[in-house]
Structures are given as C-alpha cells and as structure tokens.
Amino acid sequence: ATIRFQIDAATANAARHLAARLDTTPAVVLLAAHAALIGGLSGGTDFAIGLPAAERLRPETADIVALLVETLVVRADLAGISGTGLIRRMATEMRTVLAARPLPVDMLVERLALPRDAGRTPLFQTMFSHDRAGDHRLDLGQGLAGRLDAARTTGARTDLSLMLADSADGGLDG
Length: 174
Prior knowledge:
alpha/beta, six-stranded mixed sheet, two-stranded antiparallel ribbon, 4 helices
C-alpha cells in the first residue's frame, strides 16, 4: 500500500535548521528520524537502510545519457543513543559509506554469496530517499528539452520505503 502525506513547511524548516546547526544535511536528519521510527516500531537497535545514490563517480560515466543509480547500505545503530546523538552518528555513517563506495550492492551480494530469498532484498528491508528541491528541467541541446518528474512506483521493492521530496511550499511530500 502507498500512503501519501505532507510535512508542513514549519516542520521541514525546523529539520533544515537542525541540520545546519549540526553541520550536516537535511537528508541525514530525515534519515535519522526514519531510523528512529523503524527502531521504535520494530524494537530493533541495529539494522540496515538502503539509499539510492547517483552513480557518476567515474569519468567514463560522466557523459552517458542514462539513469545511473546504485544502492548504498547504511547501518542504523540506535543502541544507547537518540536525538542529536543519533543524527551525528548517522552523519558519520553516511560519510563513511560515501567515502567507501567501490562496490555496487549487487556485486557485493554476489561476492559475499549470501543466501537469497526471492521475496526479500539481501542486505536491507527498508529504503529511504530524499529528493531535494531544484530545477528539474533538462536542456539536451539542439532544441531538445524536458523535465524530470518523480516516478510513482506501484510495486514494493522493500518491506518499507520512505520517499520524501521537497515541495514548492517549503514542506515535504511523502
């Protein structure tokens, strides 16, 4: 099932200000809130969350016209921590994961030879994404132009996905 919701501009701005105060990004604050929610609902204190990330790190992929996305796996270790401590821990985890992106998840799973269950993703069961506001217009030259819009999916890829996007009014759409 898909549940659509909105977070008002005042709450979203509070998350942005908290991120600035903690020298991190709003996405990390929202990721920490997602982790806290999952932990609170499940009782789990150590689990993994999948995150989509643009894969344009190598020069040979810079000029390819295609959607190049990989999934990053971030550890959510909630043991003995909450609030701003959790945000700081998640920010450190994100920096670590982003600095060590040498192997795509599918290749990692293959090399680890993990037992596979076709009904589940092998490394995480919850996914988080945050689409920042910005100009989503494309100018491909020679009179070709377009606009990127969020794709709406109808099938579940993980047990739970939280997809947030900055909205025009300063809030967040989920």
